[in-house]
Each structure stands twice: as structure tokens, then as C-alpha cells.
Write a structure and sequence with these properties.
Number of strands: 9
Largest sheet: 5 strands, mixed
Strand content: over 45%
Helix content: 25-40%
Radius of gyration: 19 Å
Oligomer: single chain
Strand order of the largest sheet: 3-9-8-5-6
Number of helices: 3
Length: 178
């Protein structure tokens, strides 16, 4: 029996099944279903590496932050990366917690989350970028990734950029590649 103990495993399995079905329906043959299953597995594994959690509602967030008329706020509350000393090929969790507030009639807000790794030798390496639609409140967003094999050891920075239609927040978190 397969284990679905992690979000990556669940995403991989869900992507595989969805890819099989869609590939089979679109192509009408086994080859198309197999190709769809392979593509779905890869996409599902990547998508499964995100973990999101809503921590507070709009009402709870408004108890912490004042909001003016027709004002929109994007507040980054904390950011961390675990572990801080990273071995090449190891798994890293890059977490950011942020609050989004806007006038009450705005039901969903488009948020773009971008995560990058910077060191002096390789420069800026884009790890992920995704767009999500969030209701107002406070969220914790974690992206789990494997440190690339071809990266030099030394000081590095995990760069997280959170943006909506009107504001962009950039968070730098120093790490050491050992």
C-alpha cells in the first residue's frame, strides 16, 4: 500500500491520477494516458511541496492592524528558513507569515509568492513562483525544496518576495551552505 504521509506524496499521487485521466480522455489511447500520468506526477510533486495555513481571519487581523478607508495592506510578520546551516542536496523549509487586509468588499486578493536563493558565485537562482488567491487574514506559507547539487558552499540568502496588486515586500534570510 502506498504511503501518503507527506503533502509531496499526496500531490504526486493526485497529479498522477489526474494526468492519467486527462491524458487518456484527451488522446483516447493508452500512450496519452501514460504521458499524462508522467507529467501529472511531476507537476503534482512540485505542487505538493507547498504548505499553507490560514492563521487568522480578517476580523482577528484587524485587531492587530488599523485599516483606513479604501486602504490595502500587506504586512510580513515573520520569515524563517530551517535549517539555517544547509548541506548540499538537503531539504529546506522556507516559511513566511503575512497578513493581507483590504476594504470589506474585496473577497479575494491575488498574491504572488516568489522564492529565490542568492550567493555571490551563482547569483540569483529562482526556486519557485506561484500565484494564489487569498481571502483577507493572516497566512503561513511554507515552500519545501531541495538545495541544488551544483551550488558553491558559503554564505547565501533565501529571498522571499510577496506581492499583491499594490505592494511588494522582500524578505532576506541569511543561511550557510556547508
Amino acid at each position: 500500500m502506498p504511503k501518503f504521509d507527506t503533502r509531496a506524496n499526496m500531490g504526486m499521487a493526485g497529479g498522477c491520477v489526474a494526468g492519467l485521466l486527462i491524458g487518456g480522455i484527451i488522446s483516447g489511447n493508452v500512450f496519452g494516458a501514460m504521458l499524462g500520468g508522467m507529467l501529472g506526477t511531476g507537476i503534482g510533486t512540485f505542487v505538493g511541496d507547498y504548505y499553507d495555513k490560514k492563521l487568522e481571519s480578517r476580523k482577528e487581523a484587524l485587531m492587530k492592524y488599523r485599516l483606513g478607508d479604501n486602504e490595502e495592506k500587506l504586512i510580513v510578520e515573520e520569515s524563517f528558513t530551517l535549517p539555517q546551516n544547509i548541506a548540499i542536496g538537503s531539504i529546506i523549509n522556507a516559511n513566511v507569515q503575512y497578513t493581507i487586509l483590504a476594504p470589506v468588499d474585496r473577497k479575494e486578493i491575488k498574491i504572488t509568492e516568489t522564492r529565490m536563493l542568492f550567493n555571490e558565485r551563482e547569483g540569483l537562482i529562482k526556486l519557485s513562483e506561484r500565484t494564489v488567491f487569498r481571502t483577507q487574514g493572516t497566512y503561513s506559507s511554507t515552500f519545501r525544496f531541495t538545495l541544488p547539487e551544483k551550488i558553491s558552499k558559503g554564505d547565501a540568502i533565501i529571498v522571499t518576495v510577496i506581492s499583491n496588486n499594490t505592494q511588494t515586500k522582500t524578505i532576506l534570510f541569511p543561511v550557510k551552505i556547508v
